[in-house]
Amino acid sequence: MNAFLMESPPEHGGPLESKLYSHEAEYALIGSMIQQNDLIDDAGGRLQVQDFHHPACAELFELLLALRSKSIGIDVVTLSDARSHLADSQSTLAVAAKIVQGTPSAANFDAYTKIVKERSVARRVIMAGQAMAERLMAGDPLDEVMAQGQQAWLALESEGTDARRRYRFIGEILPEAMDGIDRRFNRAVSLGFDTGLPSLDEFIPGLCPGHVVVVAGAPGQGKTTLGLNMAERVALLKKIPALVFSLEMTDIELTNRSLSSVGSVQLKHIAEGHSMADSDWPGLTKAVAQLNDAPLIFCDDSTLTLRDIRQICRTVKREHGLGIVGIDYLGLINGESKSASRYEVVTDVSKGIKRLAKELGIPILLLAQLNRGPSARASKKPTKSDLRDSGQIEADADVVILVHRDGESEAGQAGVTELIVDKNRHGPTGTCRVQHQGAYHRFVELIPGSFSDEDVEMNRPSSTRRYGKGRPDHANF
Asked: How many CB atoms lie within 10 A of CB 457?
């Protein structure tokens, strides 16, 4: 029933009042905006024309927005002057006057807006479900229909959020900020997860919620090892779920690396099996006992898109909780569009991962590859500008750690690795040196005095070097 002048005020539970629409709320919302023009700006930021179920209300809302954008004072007369009749041939003046007259109070504008928005989202949920059902009945592939459904749910979930909850005055935030400072001062909580490498922690205040930490390096430098070690530490020491996506290795390969790292058993022995020595078994047994109950979660699906990663993260957080996510690696994440260039895909994924970190309130370790720029330099050292495929990676990252080891030097052959913190939004940049124990798939602190900075820089022998195994602080889970 579209004619306002023929309708009596809707009764609760009557034909105009349902779980899918409320014409009464739509009338009151339009009336509030006519009475107080400033409310049009607020409504314009929270509602769209299609959120109105009643065609006349949708038409009046569109007209209100148009007049407001032209800075025209709005009342029932100016509305009628701008458009004498609505699409259903009713007089704009008569309809607007009746709506204003029937509006209880503009003070309840927020409540009217919420009702209209919630009913609009509810209608679209049903439409999305019906569209999925029709596609399935038509024989469309289940995975394609599910992907479309996930995309629709995400969009609807976002639209259902009350806009007034998206910002806060600093006065509202200060108590929370001061409480956090006090708790950290008293060491009741920490800023974020430590990396397990004290020399690296001197640069990074912690793997903090909402931050994206990019770990990049050339193949074979140890970026996967570093990322997995950090995730292992969160799961084993903090007992907080750590989710690792590997688009390159299987979950069995990742598990073998964790067994090697935690148990101090050479990865080669674990992979071969037949080369396991009697001395290896106690370490392996210890690692199994520690990892068996650890909330360390692996996903090795090589076909993942960002939408898949988001959905899995949300599921894990909802069902188990979630402390940190590692993604190995950015360049292998598939794009949603088959026609998009690699640059466009990487740019979109990078932006999406940053949004995901903030949404979930967790740090995300994002592994990435470098271009060939470092190979053309005498020092072979990478910089953040060497990140492959898109400069957006550098822009979105809170921290960029570049893993560099000179395999031609004595130090590099002994595992001495430079971790170059080349970007750090919340702390200093610089370089620390650690030791890569490749046989055990882990990084550890160097033994003090095992080399000098000058030795490494000049790549010259030193009689005081004692590389050995280094200090396995990180392995002491």
From this structure: 10
Same fold, 4-120 and 192-458: no
The pLDDT of residue 468 is above 60? no
328 near 188, Cβ under 8 Å?
no
The superfamily CATH assigns to domain 192-458 is: P-loop containing nucleotide triphosphate hydrolases (3.40.50.300)
* Domain map (residue ranges) of the chain: 4-120, 192-458
d(CA 351, CA 357): 10
Residue 329: is the preceding peptide bond cis (ω within 30°)?
Answer: yes
Mean pLDDT of 456-466: 40
Decide if domain 4-120 falls under CATH 1.10.860.10: yes
Q: Which residues have a Cβ under 8 Å from the Cβ of 36 and sit 6 or more positions away?
A: 106, 109
What pLDDT digit, counting tens, does each position of 56-85 carry?
999 999 999 989 888 888 999 999 999 999
Of the candidates 456, 353, 452, the one whose C-alpha atom is nearest the C-alpha of residue 413 is 456
Asked if residues 39 and 111 have their Cβ atoms less than 8 Å apart, the reply is no
Across the range 237-263, mean pLDDT stands at 92
471: which DSSP letter?
B
HEC sequence for the chain: CCCHHHCCCCCCCCCCECCCCEHHHHHHHHHHHHHCCCHHHHHHHHCCHHHCCCHHHHHHHHHHHHHHHCCCCCCHHHHHHHCCECCCCCEHHHHHHHHHHHCCCHHHHHHHHHHHHHHHHHHHHHHHHHHHHHHHHCCCCHHHHHHHHHHHHHHHHHHCCCHHHHCCCHHHHHHHHHHHHHHHHCCCCCCCECCCCHHHHCCCCCECCCCEEEEEECCCCCHHHHHHHHHHHHHHHCCCCEEEEECCCCHHHHHHHHHHHHHCCCHHHHHHCCCCCCCHHHHHHHHHHHHHCCCEEEECCCCCEHHHHHHHHHHHHHHHCCCEEEEECHHHCECCCCCCCHHHHHHHHHHHHHHHHHHHCCCEEEEECECCHHHHCCCCCCCHHHECCCCHHHHHCCEEEEEECCCCCHHHHCCEEEEEEEEECCCCCEEEEEEEEHHHCEEEECCCCCCCHHHHHHCCCCCCCCCCCCECCCCCC
358 vs 5, residue with greater confidence:
358
Burial class (CB in 10 A: 0-12, 13-18, 19+), 217: buried
Locate 448 and state its tokens: 């003090």
- pTM value surpassing 0.70: no
